[in-house]
Specification:
With about 325 residues, the protein is an alpha/beta fold. It contains ten helices and 14 strands. It has an eight-stranded mixed sheet with strand order 13-12-11-7-10-9-8-14. It has a six-stranded parallel sheet with strand order 3-2-1-4-5-6, sandwiched between helices. Strand 9 and strand 10 form a beta hairpin. Helix 1 crosses helix 9 and helix 4 runs parallel beside helix 5. Its EC number is 1.1.1.335. This is UDP-N-acetyl-2-amino-2-deoxyglucuronate dehydrogenase.
């Protein structure tokens, strides 16, 4: 299958590695900065609509700033190409819902990049989840370091219109893992501050969560950790045991108190950065989903759930109220505006 990229920024390297390892043909790339596009060594474009018309493409990966995803995805769906979108699919949930609706209408598949679902510890806990019994408490902690230099790399970083803050950019992965492992979230109550970063949005946030299955949870996320990344962790407590995944990319089993003996080292990884190893497995799942016409692990509606929770957190911060996901309305939240 032939694939093309829209956006050749920082994350494109991980995608290109995964594309090559999965024997996909990278036939073209597009970026408004042609210097970035040229370096990849395939036909390059400044206008992605021109690329979509001229090149024979089966899949398009959108790797542009989050606030641009919706417009770019609408155009790709119009060309009836299968679609991969970096997280979050969009900055506002109703835009994501519309993309899924349109993709189904034209018969294309749409996937959101959630590479941490493919981490060895996450896969093992998903497999052994029933051994926890009834989960009553779930916690995630994202303690990462993003200096002012990081935010200054591009003028869209840390803006409400194109990026959001730590909730929508970094911790959206961990919100997704909580939903993936525990279940749908019923309500959130959140607070945030801007500890160090000179940006429009937050660099630090906390929230309490209520799950539809009765469990409660806590969420803690910051990019103000100094001097380096500490952890991206998930803890699950049930009436039959508990597990904790740590490492700085949810890549290491720290505690395994279940009625199942395992070699913890076997399920622990040590990636060189917070992007982890999951992109290769993500692309493998996408290919199998398209070729075998089966639902992918990160397909369609799977990309909407964490956006709704993220949006609810921002609405909670703006209104100082508990926000219920099923009744969510974005009235005061600035995300995506």
């Amino acid at each position: 299958m032939n694939i093309a990229l829209i956006g050749c920024g920082r994350i494109s390297k991980k995608h290109i590695e995964a594309i090559k390892k999965n024997n996909l043909n990278l036939v073209a790339v597009c970026d408004i900065d042609l210097n970035k596009a040229k370096k990849i060594g395939v036909p390059y474009y400044k206008d992605y609509n021109e690329m979509l018309k001229k090149e024979k493409i089966d899949i398009v990966s959108i790797l542009t700033p989050s606030g641009m995803h919706y417009k770019h995805a609408l155009d790709v769906i119009e060309h009836k190409k299968h679609l991969i979108i970096e997280k979050p699919m969009t900055l506002r949930y109703f835009e994501a819902e519309n993309l899924v609706k349109l993709a189904k209408k034209v018969g294309t598949k749409l996937f959101t990049v959630k590479q941490n679902r493919f981490n060895l510890p996450i896969k093992k806990i998903k497999e052994s989840k029933n051994k926890l019994g009834k989960i009553f408490l779930a916690t995630t902690r994202v303690r990462w370091s993003r200096t002012q230099e990081y935010y200054n790399m591009d003028n869209w970083r840390g803006t409400w219109e194109y990026d959001g803050g730590v909730i929508s950019n970094q911790a959206i992965h961990h919100l997704d893992l909580l939903i993936y492992l525990v279940g749908d979230i019923e309500s959130v109550y959140a607070k945030s501050i801007n500890a160090f970063a000179k940006i429009e949005t937050e660099d630090t946030a906390v929230a309490t969560l209520k799950f539809k299955n009765g469990a409660v949870g806590t969420f803690e996320a910051t990019t103000a950790t100094r001097p380096k990344d500490i952890e991206g962790s998930i803890s699950l407590l049930g009436n039959k045991g508990m597990v904790e995944i740590g490492g700085f990319a949810a890549n290491k089993i720290v505690k395994w108190e279940l009625d199942e003996q395992i070699d913890i080292k076997k399920y622990s990884q040590n990636p060189e950065n917070v992007y982890g190893f999951g992109h290769m497995e993500f692309y493998k799942d996408v290919i199998e989903s398209i070729e075998d016409n089966k639902k992918g692990i990160c397909e369609m509606e799977e990309g909407i759930k964490s956006i709704k929770v993220m949006n609810a957190m921002y609405e909670s911060i703006a209104t100082n109220k508990e926000i219920f996901i099923d009744n969510l309305k974005l009235e005061k939240a600035k995300i995506g505006k």
